[in-house]
Amino acid sequence: MASKNLNSNLHNAKNAKNDEFYTQLSDIEKELKHYKGQFKDKVVLCNCDDPRVSNFFHFFSYNFEKFKLKKLIAICYKNQDMDLFSKNNSEKAIYLEYYGDKNGNNVPDPLEIGIKCLKGDGDFRSEECIELLKQADIVVTNPPFSLFREYVAQLVEYNKKFLIIGNNNSISYKEIFKLIKENKVWLGYNCVRWFNTNNGLAEGARSFWFTNLDTTKRHEDLILYKRYNTTDYPNYDNYDAIEVSKTANIPVDYSGVMGVPITFLDKYNPEQFEIIQLDHWGILGNLDNVVNGKTLYRRIYIRNKRIGAS
Ligand SMILES: C[S@@+](CC[C@H](N)C(=O)[O-])C[C@H]1O[C@@H](n2cnc3c(N)ncnc32)[C@H](O)[C@@H]1O
Asked: Any keyword Disulfide bond (predicted)?
């Protein structure tokens, strides 16, 4: 029991540490350039973003005109020291509103940024933050990893468009995978690996952009060139599907169910493939799939829609 508690404490500590990984400006630029047209006249909310350190706030305030935004809101959780915009140290959380450059110098000056105090600590789940969420058209941020499920659930509940960073593991959260399977969430263009921390740049867990903004890549077919054969594509011992160890090796001519690595989602076009299930929960009753007695890493079961069901 003691070791279980220790493990869970270590796990929580690791998650909390990941919560303080800050996104590099270059990663934001690399991803956001694909969505520019979808931001016109939109209110953007960055609700886990201390403007002193958040490159999301930096990116949108400096690209406000280029992206033709209507308004930018940033919420700073538990703000302790707003010395960037104010000489007064504040114990309160704040939020910022920016309506674009007014004095023609193309720079978001402190005087152009409205700073308002929040009553609470700026938790994204608080009533006052939900009121700000309601104003937003698109939410863009890297939310705390430890609260990822709740964070996404809230965006879905309030029917918001979003582009957010989440780590590799979140794909296999039951709630998140369900949204991916139902084509309510998909992956963006890039992976994110390196983050700013208090100790400089650090390698975090492999992370993805999760979004419900349209991407061109999700309409592009994955080019398939391999042919099915029983040697290269063995059946699972415990499920009626074949094992495809690499996404690039998906056979062009197989109409039945195939197990593919999770990285398949990066190439997923819902017009080409149907996602059936994630292996480790649901149909296999929490078992990983097995080939010739060997347990494999997590797989997603898919079917090629272009060649119909077997
Ligand atoms: C992974 S960091 C990313 C920060 C920033 N969005 C970025 O990408 O650079 C997550 C941020 O969420 C803040 N945070 C933690 N819990 C929160 C909550 N309940 N509500 C809002 N923000 C929270 C953390 O303080 C941290 O600054």
From this structure: no
State whether CATH 3.40.50 applies to domain 19-213. yes
Distances (CA, A) of 221 to 216, 218, 233, 252: 11, 8, 21, 12
Ligand 1 center to residue 233 CA distance, Å? 43
Atom 20, ligand 1: residue with shortest CA distance: 123
Alpha carbon of 172 to ligand 1 centroid (Å): 22
For the chain, the 3-state helix, strand and coil shares in percent, each to the nearest 5, are: 30, 25, 45
**In the chain, where does the domain assigned CATH 3.40.50 lie?**
19-213
CB 208 within 8 A of CB 171: yes
In this structure, the residue with its CA closest to atom 15 of ligand 1 is: 144
- The residue-averaged pLDDT of 198-222 equals 94
Residue pLDDT, tens place only, 113-150: 989 999 999 999 999 999 999 999 999 999 999 999 99
Q: Which protein residues touch ligand 1 with a CB less than 6 Å away? A: 19-23, 48-50, 54-56, 77, 122-124, 141-144, 147
Contact 198, 158 (CB under 8 A): no
